[in-house]
Amino acid sequence: MRRPTAGRKDRDKFISGRNRQNAVKSMVVTDAVGQMLFCSPAEPASCADITHARQPGLVKLLVNAPAVEILADAGYQGLGAQTGGRVVTPPHRKFKKNPPEWYEEMHEHQRKAHSSRRIPVEHGIGHLKNWRALARHRGRREHMSDIVQAVAGRLPH
């Protein structure tokens, strides 16, 4: 994204803490084969993934919804407990120092199993990112939400 000029109000609002880049973020939900079901409007990237899920009321929706399983990445860690196990994230590392040798193998196996199940989801998200309007956007970030929604609408359902 294009960086706002110096001295502009809210200049640091869109800067991602991890990558230190001026960016926007959008939450995408796909089905089991990678077909896009939902794409949220673009939001400032200075906020955590889990917060982006909570703001539009996704947690409340999932708690009251029929049993459905959502495979999420590590950015949504902790959302599973709030939604009654409907959101499945990669396993959290329980031992940071000196783990037992049986734990390493088990953790790696669980992590790979989750990753393998998420491949179609990542492919669905990749189709969205392949559009030139998103991959090479140099315009104003205020228009990015409209562009994301337009591209998501063009993808096959």
List the helices and strands and how they pair.
Layout: E1 24-25, E2 28-30, E3 36-39, E4 43-44, H1 49-54, H2 58-64, E5 70-71, H3 79-82, E6 87-88, H4 101-117, H5 119-129, H6 132-135, H7 144-154
Parallel strand pairs: 5-6
Antiparallel strand pairs: 1-4, 2-3
Describe, in plain words, how this protein is organized in 3D.
- With 157 residues, the protein is α+β, with helices and mostly antiparallel strands.
- The chain has one domain (11-60, 90-154).
- Helix content is 38%, strand content 10%.
- The protein contains 7 helices and 6 strands.
- The strands form 3 sheets. A two-stranded antiparallel sheet has the order 1-4.
- The model has no long low-confidence stretch (mean pLDDT 79).
Question: Can I get a quick summary?
Answer:
The chain is α+β, with helices and mostly antiparallel strands and 157 residues long.
Distance between the termini: 28 Å
Integer count of domains: 1
Residue windows where pLDDT falls under 50 for at least 5 positions? none
The biggest beta sheet, please? 2 strands, antiparallel
Mean pLDDT over the residues: 79
Strand content: 5-15%
SS class: alpha+beta
Gross morphology is globular
Number of helices: 7
Q: Rg to the nearest angstrom?
A: 18 Å
Fraction in helix: 25-40%
How many runs of DSSP E, i.e. beta strands? 6
Q: What pattern of helices and strands is seen along the backbone?
A: EEEEHHEHEHHHH
